[in-house]
Design a protein that fits this description.
Layout: E1 14-15, H1 20-30, E2 34-39, E3 42-48, H2 49-57, E4 77-79, H3 84-94, E5 98-103, E6 106-112, H4 113-119, H5 123-129
Parallel strand pairs: 1-2, 4-5
Antiparallel strand pairs: 2-3, 5-6
Length: 151
């Protein structure tokens, strides 16, 4: 199956001067956690909901700072004619869960790990690719409290 068959082609992006607060509001409005950042129609980076929490809010940065200050500049994309297996391999290699989808260097969509998993046929390949989201636990802060959850 090709990426173009399952990608989201309704790409929402933000300008490099969009504030962190407005970026978060856009993510909330559209129920997304990933936005390409553009400068004069050129993609210069991407920002995730995790970037906002880990890089901006944790550091007590004002929410009116431009989102481009916290974006990932390493833009990773895949051509829309590549296969889902190609995308999963790239996600695993780069340890990411979303890819920008391109056609002749133009942004045409976004594909996520979860979208691919919903559409992939070869479940053995999916099981191997799930390692893309497996990360070793980092040292836990001894003063942090863990909430108890019951079902």
């Amino acid at each position: 199956m090709k990426i173009k068959d399952i990608m989201n082609s309704n790409v929402i992006s933000i300008d490099k001067n969009t504030s962190v607060l407005n970026t978060a509001l856009i993510m909330q409005k559209y129920d997304i956690g990933f936005l390409p950042i553009v400068d004069n129609d050129d993609i210069i980076g991407v920002i995730t909901d995790r970037d906002i929490v880990i890089r901006a809010l944790i550091n007590r940065i004002r929410t009116n700072v431009h989102a481009s200050k916290y974006m990932s500049k390493d833009v990773i994309s895949i051509n829309q004619d590549n296969t889902c297996e190609d995308a999963l391999t790239l996600m695993k290699e780069k340890k990411i869960k979303r890819l920008l989808v391109t056609e002749k260097d133009n942004l045409v969509g976004i594909v996520s790990f979860s979208t691919i998993v919903k559409h992939i046929i070869d479940s053995n390949f999916v099981v191997e690719s799930i390692k893309v989201i497996d990360k070793p636990l980092k040292k836990i802060d001894k003063e942090a409290k863990i909430d108890e959850f019951k079902l």
